[in-house]
Amino acid sequence: MRFSVIIPAYNAEKHIVKGLESIKAQSFKDYELIVVCDRCKDRTKEIAESYGSKTLEVDFGRDGLTRNAGLD
Question: In this structure, is the dihedral angle defined by the CA atoms of residues 16, 47, 71 and 58, taken in order, positive or negative?
């Protein structure tokens, strides 16, 4: 069964690699990875895409709305 991993992010370049590596290390591989960059001004998007993530750029400033954008 396929599922989605959605990561809301705000300028997360210092921490996102650890999370993405953890996801990559899981034995289950049938998932899609979506990183939602909420007003990111750093390299979060580029790092996420280097891990094969789909990325969305939004301007909400609220975690709930950012996560919901990934659900859409």
Answer: positive
